[in-house]
Amino acid sequence: MYLIDTNIFLEVLMSQDNSEKCKIFLEENYGNLYMSDFTLHSIGVILFRNKKFDLFESFATDVLPNINLLSLKKEKYNILPETHNICKLDFDDAYQYQIAREYELTIVTMDNDFKKLKKEINLLFL
């Protein structure tokens, strides 16, 4: 089961260089995909900032019903600063890391900041 990092969805939504590879991965793993609420909100912020309201609406209509949405439990927020200090991750990556640990998921990403955590958590780089 996979926690899809924000950059994977944005790659497809914004038709970037690796969009086809990301799209294929998402299609091939249908039913085993998870997204954090942070990812959903980040996608919304970026698409709204770029005035891509229709694209967000399509994403919410077509993709969200097929993805399991996860949130970090309230009592886990207090460990994010420690995660930052130990793993040297920004808030967004620390959040993803803790969600993946809590739910025992593999993070699927293109974010090189996670490379230093190969021994700590299951990772799949696209």
What does this 3D model show about the protein?
The chain is an alpha/beta fold. It has a single domain, classed as 3-Layer(aba) Sandwich (Rossmann fold). It has 6 helices and 5 strands, in the order E-H-H-E-H-H-E-H-H-E-E. It has helices at residues 6-13, 19-28, 37-49, 53-63, 80-87, 91-103; strands at 2-4, 33-36, 68-70, 106-109, 123-125. The mean pLDDT is 96.
Number of strands: 5
- Identify the CATH homologous superfamily: 5'-nuclease
Overall geometric form: globular
Strand content: 5-15%
Q: In CATH, what is the class?
A: Alpha Beta
State the end-to-end CA separation.
15 Å
Order of helices and strands: EHHEHHEHHEE
Report the mean per-residue pLDDT as an integer: 96
Low-confidence stretches: none
Number of separate structural domains: 1
The assigned CATH architecture is: 3-Layer(aba) Sandwich
Number of helices: 6
Brief digest:
50% of the residues lie in helices and 13% in strands. With 126 residues, it is of the alpha/beta class.
Topology:
Elements: E1 2-4, H1 6-13, H2 19-28, E2 33-36, H3 37-49, H4 53-63, E3 68-70, H5 80-87, H6 91-103, E4 106-109, E5 123-125
Parallel strand pairs: 1-2, 1-4, 2-3, 4-5
Question: What characteristics describe this protein?
Answer:
126 residues; alpha/beta; Rossmann fold; 6 helices; globular
